[in-house]
Amino acid sequence: MKRLLAFFLIISCIFTTGCWDQIEITDLALVIGTALDKGNDPENKVALTIQVANPRMFIPGEGGGGDGEEAFWTATGTGKTIREATFGISHRVPRRLFFGHNRLMIVGEEVAREGIMPYLDRYFRSRETRPNLYILVARGRGQDILETNMATFRSSGMALINMFDLGNNHTVVPVRLIQFVYDLTSACQAAVAPMVQVVVQSSVSIEEAKHASRLQTLSVKGLAVFNSEGQMVGEMNETETAGLLWIRNWAEKHQLTVPCPIESAKASVDLDLMGSTSKTRVEIGEDGIPRFDIEVRTVFDVGEHFGNHMDMDQSWYIDSLAKRANTTIAREIQAAVSKAKALNADVLGFAEEVHRQHPREWEVIRNNWPDIFPLVEVNVSSMSEITTRGMSAENPDDSLKVVK
Amino acid sequence: MGDGKISQRQLAFLFFTILIGTMFFHNPQIVVGTTGQDGWIAYLIASFWGILVALVMVALGQRFPDQTLTGYIPNILGKPLGKILSLLYTIWFLFIGGGVLAQFANFMNTTIMASTPKMVFIITFVAIAYYAVNLGLETFVRVNELLLWVIVIAIILVVTLPYELMDLRRMLPVGQMSIGKLVATSLIAGSWRGEVMLVGMFLPALVTLKNTTRNMIWTVFLVGVFMIAVEISLVTVFGAQIVGDLEVPVFNLARMISTARVLDRVEALVLIIWVFATFIKICAFLYCTARATADTVGFQDYRFLLLPLSLLFTAIAYNQTVDPAKFVDFLLFTWPGYGLLSFELVIPLFLLIVALWRGKREKKV
Amino acid sequence: MPYPHEFLEISPNLAENEKFLRQSFEKTTDIVFREFYLGENRCLAVWVDGLINNRVSHDLFRALMLDVNPDRLKQIPANERLDYVNKHHLPFYATLRVVDMIELRRWVLMHKLILLMDGSPIGLVLDAEATPMRGITEPTLESVVYGPRDAFVESLRINTALIRARLGDVKLKSENFILGRRSNTLVTLMYVEDLARPDVIEEVRNRMKRIDTDAIWDVYQIKECIHDQRWTLFPMMKQTERPDKVVADLLEGRFAILVDGSPQALTAPSILVEFFQSAEDYYENPIITAGLRILRYLSLLIACTGLGFYVAVTTFHQEMLPIPLIFSVAGARETVPFPAFFEALLLMVVFELLVEAGIRLPRVVGGAVNIVGALIIGQASVQAGLVSPILVIVIAATAISNFAVSVNYQVANILRLLRILFLIFAALLGLYGMSLVLLALLVRLASLKSFGVPYLAPLAPASPIPGETKDVFYRLPKWHIKSRPHFIAGSDLIRDNTQPPSSDMGPETSADADEGGGNK
Fold first, then answer.
1. Gap from B172 CA to chain C (nearest CA, Å)
2. Is B272 in the C-facing interface, judged by CB distances under 8 Å?
3. Residue C257 is inside which H or E element, if any?
């Protein structure tokens, strides 16, 4: 009985002192994405834009609140730090900003070019934000990305999240913050992040689009390349991005368009990636310069044949399609390598490979890596297989078959 | 309400929880921080230290099967010196137990409940631990028997679920660190494993001493295996560099889990499982402290000591909450000396040697 | 049968005895004194009106008054005449020879017919009992789809008969106790002698003897007096209305207590898991049973913690909800004026009220309660914006889980209480608070013992003998559970030696069967 009494006394202590971390869900402003830009004011260097969900739009059965209310709204604040910028917003918001569902870190191009390092700390230190959110670089200001009013999706932030959750294909490359930071801090000291820009939805001019809402949309294309200082030093176009995916073994849903083996036909064949693995072998040359043998094994499905002539039922045709795929892959890889060399940013993970495969030599190379990297030699061997050809074995127009 | 006996299985389960309980808070951060991706070698060597401690303690316990560690120290060393050492052990239990509690409160504050005062965690925890230990050794040992499965499953889930983010190649290259550094780090990791020394307080409660050595070695080894799994998971997800920079890395690992559309962030669930492990650990330390005090002062029963000792635990835990940098410094530089190199391994080893040399063993009644 | 404290020898003089009885039963209109002559011997029969089978008593008087040869009787010495009658002329199943007047008087009150004869210093107790009684019906609380459909009734004899009918073992013992100074209730303790642990039986005997109360009319009253804890939320002994459950318990080495007038039996030592085992589990495919048991434990989890979890997640750990879900939850909560905790408490209390009302109300009005409940809780409160529809779903889920887990009704009520506890602590400290409750609960459960058996056995302490958990989270086939639970049964631990069934028919293939059927 005494024990029971003591127990209840302790409980009553808790009751009377209140509940510290408790907050009602209705008192929260759910932030789903953040964008970082340079502030205009030299004092306040950071401009933070957040996209917040408006729960009034999610009341079941009513399908939306009052007139003109949007399901998501954005707000921008400035400050010396990200945190201060957050407080700059919070006095305009009647709820507590909650970053637990923040899934996006959009970095404005200006910030990226100047150096991203100072902006990373908050995202790792925060209790609410998870470091596996997606990082991306905006062409222009990040604020514009979040403020884009999309016709096709509830909000720009949600659209980006959804797009990245679906995994990567050859243009959209989701990069999580921990991957980004890992690359920056690893031996490579360079990282990539996808680039996003506002584009016009339909065939209206940009000027028109700015006035009429819901005519803009977002496009994720290409990669921003960061050097060891965390500064964005350049971009990779689609071909180079594809090459990077091959080298880093990140390729998941990829699609190649190769010319038809029958050259006279001037047709194109589309190959869809079914599975791929890539291995990088490093050999250190006598001059101390590493040589990289990249071996890519891929399996493709024929997605489309655009043109007149084909011999899909001939094995030589399939074989030469595979050869053409090999050529394309090799070309893409070499494009990525030469871009990385040009920017002198080892986004291909070569340094890590050297470190892993030749730890002793790496100790020597380590300090001169920025000088050595542009000199490295890369050999590509690609082995493609075409195992399926879709649901059609033959071009319907059989009479046009060319017999070789 | 006499203390019942516990079985070999219960003892092994109990020590699994005790050893793995606080391993998660700062341990991987320190080990991976100093030895990089080779941390698992340090953990492997640490298992060796742990096994050594277990061997020494069981060898001592077999010479005095009906007495606890603090009970037979005076028998080995003689009254005045032995009593002083017993007292030192009592204080050691008290402070390590208080330290575990402080770490836990700190951890709760760091992770999900930032503004709840530490005192709330400490008091609620000590209250339930007092309740459990007061009901006897059997009680919390049984509770552990149930919770262990939850703890093990939770660890396995935390280690495996972030599989999407894992890149096994981050474990390479192997063997970058010098042996000296690995051994030095293993002393730190081994100080946690050395807590198996608490077994000296539990041996007299066993039904039979048969197979104790084998079971304890297995326990220490399995804890090592789990820690290695944790380390591998951490390094493959974050990379060695980042792990060293993270506050409570395993919790961060849990934060990486995203089961997408059902439960997004399971870290709060994971956290309550750490609550379980820490709870058992606090119970064990509270029990050891009470037993040690009773032995040293010469009381037969220890239960009436629990209330004052619980209050002492509370006070010590509350006052031990220092700033995190200082605490990690303590774990890095002081803890091995305070743990493995003195109370956990060196002193028991010394006791064993003296006992062998003077031919001391329990007088058969 | 234990003697009462007082002792009064039956006098050979019938008048004296009659005087005593008449004095005792003064102002008692429902006692019948029937005086008659057996030859020349004056006899007296006494019984409680309405508790004796009329037809039997008719036969009795016919036998005594008409069929006894008075001359033969005269040759017997006077003090042995009643014994002679007992041996030769009473066509009864059970008669009892009593020399104590007090005891005899008590038998009258315990629905027996007593017979006294002038000159004989003894009394006869005749079992012509016909207490008002309903027939054997189907179990109401523990109904099953498969398996036996009889349930205990209020009559002790029938209840023991139901058990004995299933368990024709010579070792099945039953001991009678008469409890209640005023009620004189017959209580039977049953156990299988070589299965139950002797120390447990001795302990229960002692505990039964310790009961010193005026009246007992239900097993629960016995349970409160003899179980292991003064205060306990958890049932330390199992009450059941199913004879097959009692038989199964007896065979596992438990004892059973039956009380006259109570349609339930009490079995112990009890462990926690048996309160989640339905009788039907044993009459159903083991694979199905495993699934059902998992479902049951899952519903246990939901029933206890579902509501608390909702409150903890919406007020402490909002990050746990994935993005689309948190929008729905936030949207649903948007119009609710109360804090989540109060909202949950409100709806839960209303729901519990409905449950209680549904139990107490006559069946005719029950439908009305359902309609009111469905309309008010389901529709109006959501439409009025008092509670969020998501909470209604959560409450409904916990309620359904609660019913799904209630193999034992008492456990279901405990879960209702625990739910509030979890809710309160979830509102105070979130998931941490809930884990504190869980810890305290586990500590409490781990410390309990029912007649020396740890309450959490065979999970904690886990039995050193492998295979004790064959009947906890799942149930293996009967031939697979070779032994009785070691922590309960005393001796004769081998329960089953059946060979695993196989499809082999001829002797020429039996060699293969021996090698293949390695389930030893």
1. 34
2. yes
3. strand C255-259
